[in-house]
Amino acid sequence: MTQHLSAAAMPHVPQFQQLTLQGADAEKFLQGQLTCDVTKLGLSYQAAAIGNLKGRIEFGIWIKKQAEQHYDVIISTDCSASLQAHLKKYGAFSKFTTSEPIAIYPCVLDDMPTFSHQDTYNTPENTQAWMHSSLAHGNYWIVAATQGEFQPQELRLHQRGGMDYDKGCYLGQEVIARIYFKSAPKAFLHYVQGSGNVPAAGEKLDKIQVVNAIADDQNIQGFKALVVARPEHLAESELTILELPTALQADVARPK
Questions:
Q1: pLDDT score for 5
Q2: Which residues sit opposite 108 in a β-bridge?
Q3: Which residue stretches of 61-144 are H helix?
Q4: Is 7 within the bounds of a domain?
Q5: One domain for residues 166 and 222
Q6: Which UniProt keywords apply (predicted)?
Q7: Within a domain: residue 153?
Q8: Are 121 and 106 in contact (CB under 8 A)?
Q9: What is the DSSP string of 131-181?
């Protein structure tokens, strides 16, 4: 039987906000920032990232094109202020406006993790369901503790349509492209089950780094998590590897 935990019993409950970018230069600006191809966005949320100069994810986001020159961006609430500062710094000479952040709620629709503005989804049960669904689908979320920790390929973002290697330059693109074309991440995203307390985002379990985790609703003494690890280190651990969706089971290296 599934247990419905209160917010107090869920120590790592995520919260999210939405920012809206509108204006004549919104698309051009975002194209020079995001890992995905902004010209291909539609009305469905696309996982994407803004990297830093080291090629690591500074802001993990979801984005959709609401209308012409109108883009909605979702980010973890604890990263919202730093994203706004980033947009102000890099967009100072571009013609677009950024809205004040508003709350948006994680939910599961048609068995997929997504977001809604409807207050009815603002419950611990819906957030818990979203977290479980997100872990099972490899839908990681970056929080303040994991900003700058992971490369996009390590999190399999390219296998989720969140990266485009032909779109041109963006922040961190040179490092990201070099890894993709000349090597491959040795550690990458896995979905696992473990025992003990729920680890925090960014916590290291020996040589394995946690991305996100939640209490296992089938085992109160255990947890499920998305982690970045080398396969050999996972094999040496006590964690059990669970299946990710088929698209995320492929080799993270570039197809030869």
A1: 41
A2: 113
A3: 77-90, 124-137
A4: no
A5: no
A6: Methyltransferase, Transferase
A7: yes
A8: yes
A9: HHHHHHHT-----GGGTTS--TGGGTGGGGT---SSS---TTHHHHHHHHH
E strand intervals along 186-254: 188-195, 204-205, 208-216, 219-229, 240-242
Q: What is the mean pLDDT of each run of 10 residues along the chain (256 residues)?
A: 39 89 97 97 97 96 97 98 97 96 98 97 96 98 98 96 91 89 90 96 97 88 96 97 96 83
Domain end marker among 182, 201, 232: 182
Angstrom distance (rounded) from CA 14 to CA 107? 12
| 216 vs 62: CA distance, rounded Å | 26
Determine the structural domain holding residue 90 and report its residue range.
13-182
In this structure, which amino acid lies at residue 16? F
Q: What pLDDT, on a 0 to 100 scale, did the predictor assign at position 6?
A: 37
Q: Residue 254: its pLDDT value, please?
A: 82
Tokens of 179: 């890894």
Tell me, what's the pLDDT at 1? 33
Tell me: do 158 and 215 sit in the same domain: no
pLDDT at residue number 72: 98
CATH number at residue 94: 3.30.1360.120
Q: Which three-class secondary structure state does DSSP give residue 75? A: strand
Domains of the chain: total: 2
Dist CA 89 CA 18 (whole Å): 19
C-alpha pair distances (Å), 67 with each of 100, 117, 167? 18, 18, 21
Cβ 107 vs Cβ 116: under 8 Å:
yes
Q: Measured on CA atoms in the order 21, 23, 27, 31, is the torsion positive or negative?
A: negative
Residues present in the chain in total: 256
Q: Does residue 3 fall inside a structural domain?
A: no
Establish if 211 belongs to a structural domain: yes
Tokens representing residue 116 in the block: 């809604």
Q: Are 176 and 153 in contact (CB under 8 A)?
A: yes
Last residue of a domain, one of 132, 165, 182: 182
